[in-house]
Amino acid sequence: MAGETRHSKAGAKTGAKAAAGLVVLDGAGARPAAGRVWLVGAGPGDPELLTLKALRALQGAQVVVHDGLVSDEILALAPAAAQRISVAKRKSRHSYAQDEINRMLVAFALQGLEVVRLKGGDPFIFGRGGEELEACREAGVECLVVPGVTAALAASAGAGAPLTHRGAAQAVTFVTGHAAKGSEPDLDWESLARPNQTVVIYMGLSMAPEIARRLTQAGRSPATPALIVENASRADERRRTTTLAGLADAAAELSGPALLIVGESMALARADAPAEVEVFAARIAELGGK
To answer: Would residue 67 show up in a list of annotated catalytic residues for this protein?
Structure first.
């Protein structure tokens, strides 16, 4: 990986585990000036969707603790000397428990280091950023938050389907498709089933049949347009346009990180090339290009 330190992955993980278990005791010994923790949203994957503030934070990092969904191109923007620690989650398995991550961030900061906790999307939208912020505050560690472009915005823009639209979507709601330990979330299905609103379900691909059933039973029309976007904004992005009735079958065709979006304005979604590519192609054609 570009910019990777010379330390072996095993060595890095051992160091991270040690940091996660570090207990700082008050005493007469000198303590380094406290560092800071930055909770940084890396966006949905496309490096061009990284904010300028996120880039500056990343370029100043001494330690980068990152999710598995953060692209290599974005990780390469950190200094070559920065230690990189992956806390990736794969198929419901965590390489680190959340409390270990919390302790790790605090321990590195108390060593006087600038720590960037790099998260896919936005730290505060189903990113457990609030838990890490609380851990830092409880430990007296300064914690700064840099928002990021959440996947729902990239999915909507890429497909050319607005999340809000006059006459079709007066509200938008973000919900999670999974609760703790993979259980079904406790949602107000009747509220979500009301027409003229957009419902965005994060981490709901495997729950698509149950989600469709719940919304339909609560009164949402089976003919309501729906969109599923896998790997939003990335080169391998895939989309499926369907209806609430066809949501389960469409979801079965995909396997990667995906969003389910249900609402009347999804009738505008395009399943083929990204909307911006089509616009540029049309403009080039107008100018006589090939």
So the answer is: yes
For position 89, what pLDDT does the model report?
74
Q: CB–CB of 161/65 below 8 Å?
A: no
DSSP type of residue 49:
G
In the predicted model, residues of the chain with pLDDT beneath 50 are 1-9, 22-31, 290
> Of 13, 17, 53, 67, which is the active-site residue?
67
Domain boundary among the residues 127, 146, 165 is at 146
Indicate the number of domains in the chain.
Answer: 2
Distance of CA 174 to the CA centre of its chain: 13
Please give the pLDDT value at position 272. Answer: 83
Do residues 158 and 140 share a domain? no
* Residue 15: predicted pLDDT: 56
Query: Active-site residue among 9, 72, 89, 272?
Result: 89
Residues 6+ apart with CB under 8 A from 215: 189, 192, 193, 199, 224, 244, 262
Euclidean distance between CA atoms 248 and 253, whole angstroms: 9
186 is catalytic: no
